[in-house]
Amino acid sequence: MPILPIDTGRYGTPEMKRVFERESRVQRMLDVEAALAWAHAKVGNIPLKAAEEIAAKASTEHVKITRIDEIEREIKHDTASLVRALAEACGPSGAYVHLGATSYDIVDTATALQLKEALEILERRLDDLESILMRQAHRYKSTVMMGRTHGQHALPITLGFKFAVWMREISRHIERLRECRKRVVVGKMSGAVGVQAGLEPHAQEIQELVMRRLGVNAADISTQIVQRDRRAELICTLAIIASTLENFATEIRELQRPEIGEFFEPFDVEKRVGSSTMPHKRDPETSETTCGLARIVRCLVTPALENVTTWHERDMTQSSAERFITPMSCILVDHMLASMSRVLADIVVDEERLADNIGLTRGRAMSEAVMIALTKRGISRQKAHEHLRKLAVKSTLEKKYFRQVLLEDEEVSATLTQEEIDDALDPRNYTGTATTQVDNMVALTKRERSSRRPRTSPKM
Question: Which residue in the list 77, 243, 275, 413 is annotated as catalytic?
């Protein structure tokens, strides 16, 4: 009976869940056993016909999960149960199954095969999200909005600039994931404690043959397990990606508040229900879910780091934790990427509200621009800053527009013309290099994308 929300179907894409479902896991382990038999035959350790028979029977069609479970109930060892079930299916050739190997040669190499597939899916998700943000950065590169610091109005930016900053964060994650893959997608065939005694005299050749056949790298050196600094790096990387997605989601949640109302998650107004009791509700539920799931992914970092510690050449403290953290981290981050890609692809932007919100401080948010204009007329920066600070306070207390306060001030009006004051107070004149930076970052991202492996992506 399904219990966890991944099992019930609430979270996780079918593509990623297929990678980690039980049958796929068993098949990957059988693939490793078949590759090991093939390598033994290649170096002359076992008959070629025996290796061919093992390869033919190394599938869940012949090795039933029900039989593996039946054996495990008796012998209490999961990998040994799979080995016995495969050996049974192979008849006399079963005598050569698992020759010279230890359990975690099979388990760790099978995990490498799963992670290879999972990381390809995650990179595609990141690539798609990068493409969406690139398109949105270009589309809104000149759309002026208020930038905020400490939750307060600061200076004008453009919406495209915000999207470009997010885009480059995703670009860095693609780089991290690609770099991480080299250290994470590794298997081994080293036997008990890692010295390959049971595989001699062709041990290292067998390891290379197995890994080449499976399409993963061989660990440069390992004990009875692949060292868990590799897995810890992956989980930490996924946690950083999850935190980035939470950052995006938090901003969407904030800017969707009715008090701000600048952009919104897409919402099917014909069918979607926002509340069981309040018909008017339009909640940012996808973004909120993303924030919640990010907390779960970050929690998985602790056991991943603790798994780096091993008693001597191997103990079992990692395995029970990894049954949770490896599939959960990949499935949840994949779910979050797919969800936030849909949100950002169809984000609803209220450009009128963006413009209206700039005026909430009655022009005081443009005080730096006025200060710069005064310094160009010979007033020291420090003096101009203090004088404008006092005028901003006056504007706030007297509920006057900053423009009126500036025009009424003798020092400012004696230094700047009304036209110069109006120019300084126009937010469209004070977005600096925002649009240039957007263009530069879009161009850089396009160059990086062209250097990656070719794949079909949404066009900008």
Answer: 275
